[in-house]
Amino acid sequence: MILDGAPQKRGNFLNLVVGLGVSLLLAACSLANPPKDSAKKPELDVPYEPTSHGIAKEMLNLAGVTSQDLVYDLGCGDGRIVILAAKERGARGVGVDLDPERIRESKKNAKAAGVNHLVQFFEQNLFETDIRQATVVMLYLYPEVNLRLRPKLLRELRPGTRIVSHSHTMGDWEDDETRRVEGHDLHFFVVPANMTGTWRWQEPGGAPVSLALSQKFQRLKGSLTIGAETYPIRDGSLRGESIFFRVERPLQGQRQVFSYEGRLSGNTIQGKITADESGQGANRWEATRDPSTIVSIAE
Ligand SMILES: C[S@@+](CC[C@H](N)C(=O)[O-])C[C@H]1O[C@@H](n2cnc3c(N)ncnc32)[C@H](O)[C@@H]1O
Are residues 184 and 204 both part of a single domain? Predict the structure, then answer.
């Protein structure tokens, strides 16, 4: 009994020490090699929440998507918006999402919808995605994420590119249209060209004209100088590369409002000037800009 008792106690103690050692070793190993799933969880700027089918359809309508378009969905979830654009409009599409599970679903869904030849999906951070080729951009993010993305949208997208943001605005970049669908607001934006700077041309009579423009998104301010007279511009606005503003100036002893419309190409604007009241006297104008006077509109 006595002899039996001592080795048993020693054995218990040894078991305890070995057991503790093994547990510590296992704990250390699991810290060094965390389970694969938790190691791969991406840090999302916005959690996953799919757009309903009805809203996705209306987003395509609002952007006027056609088979000529290349539609990007930044944070594409299960790919439903670009897949719908491909299926219903024949548009090409690119979806990016940081979550690999979403990208797997998107690829599976594209295959099931038979639009593999039109769409591509990439596991990628939307802030690092090259979006320069997009003609339409779809977003369902957060307001603050839209704001962080805004300079990139304005810098990289070509003028005239359409953006639809599900639910969220773009801060002080006012939308060009709002549409309410299923209790959600959809915000539509057209990327404005940069019209800032000093533009010059000659009136038909020979007087030199200069137009000084500053710009906040699609709103324009500035003044028009004809000969020695300077007039402020009114209602200055842009839609992509199309410009519009009014100027009130005296003509034959009366104040007259003139509407200026034009289209930008490089550093040239070509368009027409009409005298509002009479609707007569449409003149052409062709202005050129000194490129050194351009100011960035992306911030
Ligand atoms: C609200 S869901 C919208 C999904 C889809 N666009 C739709 O409307 O059905 C936002 C998506 O953005 C993805 N996401 C969040 N942060 C991201 C980032 N930095 N880069 C790429 N994707 C991101 C999420 O994984 C999620 O799938």
Answer: no
Decide: pTM greater than 0.70.
yes
**Cβ < 6 Å from ligand 1: which residues?**
44-46, 48-51, 73, 75-77, 80-81, 96-99, 102, 125-127, 140, 166
Residue 28 structure tokens: 């250390």
| Same domain membership, residue 157 and residue 87 | yes
In a domain, 136, yes or no: yes
Q: Flag whether 226 is in a domain.
A: yes
- Rounded distance between C-alpha atoms, residue 295 and residue 214, angstroms: 8
CA of 53 to the centre of ligand 1 (A): 16
Distances (CA, A) of 260 to 165, 202, 205, 249: 31, 15, 18, 13
pLDDT tens digits, residue range 71-108? 999 999 999 999 999 999 999 999 999 999 999 999 99
Q: Which of 140, 160, 190 is the last residue of a domain?
A: 190
* Residue owning the nearest CA to atom 2 of ligand 1: 48
Q: How far lies 201's CA from each of 93, 210, 224, 245, 286, in Å? A: 42, 7, 11, 16, 6
The answer to whether position 237 is within a domain reads yes
Domain membership of residue 11 as a residue range: 2-33
